[in-house]
Amino acid sequence: MEAPRFKEVQNTTIWWHTDIFDFFYFSEAVSCLENTLEEGSKSSDIDIQSLYNNISRCHEIIHKLNGEEQEQYYSGILCHLDSALHSQKSLLKSKIDQLNEQSHSQTDKQNGSTKQEKIPVADAQCQNRRSAIEDTIITKGGLTFSDVAGLEDAKQTLREAIIMPLQFPQLFTGAVKPWKRILLYGPPGTGKSRLAQAISSEIQSTFYCVSSSDLVSSWVGESEKLIKELFHHAVSQKGRSVIFIDEIDSICRQRNSREEEYTRRIKTELLKQMEGADNSSQTDKIFLLCATNCPWELDSAFLRRFQKRIFIPLPDKETRIKLMKIHTKDDRVTLTEEEWSRLGDETKGFSGSDIANMILDALFCPIRDIQKSTKWVKRPDGMFSPCLSDNNSSTEYLITATIADLPPDKISPRDAVLGDFMASLATHKCTVTAAELEKFEEFTKAMGVRG
Hints:
By secondary structure, the chain is α/β, with parallel strands linked by helices. The protein has helices at 23-40, 48-68, 72-99, 121-134, 152-167, 192-202, 212-215, 222-236, 261-275, 300-305, 317-327, 337-346, 352-363, 365-372, 418-425, 434-447; strands spanning 5-9, 12-16, 106-107, 116-117, 181-185, 207-210, 241-245, 286-292, 308-311, 375-378, 384-386, 398-400, 449-450. Strand 7, helix 9 (261-275) and strand 8 (286-292) form a beta-alpha-beta unit. Helix 4 (121-134) packs across helix 8 and helix 12 packs parallel to helix 15.
């Protein structure tokens, strides 16, 4: 018997016996794999249909050869290859179906024909990118600047950059130009995203709320096209559009020699669009607002392009009290001004999200009392409230029962009091460390301004 031979294709070694495997089939399978690797190595304009055809043909050949193989060792190798090809074939088929899902919806409107026409894959990809960008557009919400406590300097800057140019365009002539690119940075939970949400409610123009997951694709070259589509879509809108990119550091970290080539291309495309290289005549139609918790990790080229870098600090005492009142405005809370002031002192170092979590836990205390109460007071309005002391034991309105014995729609919790908030503070601590605050202070002294 002739000795076994092998051929290596991209670190994959395939063994075969010349008296078992047909050389023609094997050569064709290798050719399909080589064509697939060549097509997949392209940086852009990948022909997905060609990938699918080559993988399908290779899978068909391997499946046929595996059925004819008698020796267990070689059969095992072919079985693994068969499974891998089947998986890749299914993945490509799903992607093609996704790209072509709208391909049968076009109608020849000029001729009044209802006949459906298939859209080419390239057009389907363009439509999907446009659809993905349109999904990031958010409608006008109910949150306004008045709902964001503190941060007056940041609000004023954003009004100058976005709201006033839209309301009073005649004021911005000659050398007076509105800001085009602003970076908000600070500890997590300090209100950066809420400021962006408030802007969407204050303006009457298109607002894009984008994250890295909306712009980064697993397909080579697709991320750059998504970024370009985002800015081109914004320019095409009537009036001035606002693009908000949250967690910008996940896309624009400092460049180094060890990063992948595709990440470099993503950063280059974003830099180009930020500078308005493709639409310099219409660059005034876009305002870019970005937010990050790690400004020192941003590449210097990106930092330079932000005209203002605003530090969003932890709330001070007055802002913390205002935040707590905003969170409890729709709840029954009995606190004096002195008690609010004490809570303001006790929450020093808390971020906005820390305060929200603490308030939520405190407001649960009256509900917990309802669950364990066995004595209830019937109020004149017919509602039942839990009785936590024996002071009312002689009243005719006091009854003994559990929560299951009372009508659900007649149960009313007591008001939240200072003790509930103090109990919540015992289990909720601030999440921003002194070391993190020091890093923000150093960055602000070097490159930022306070908001």
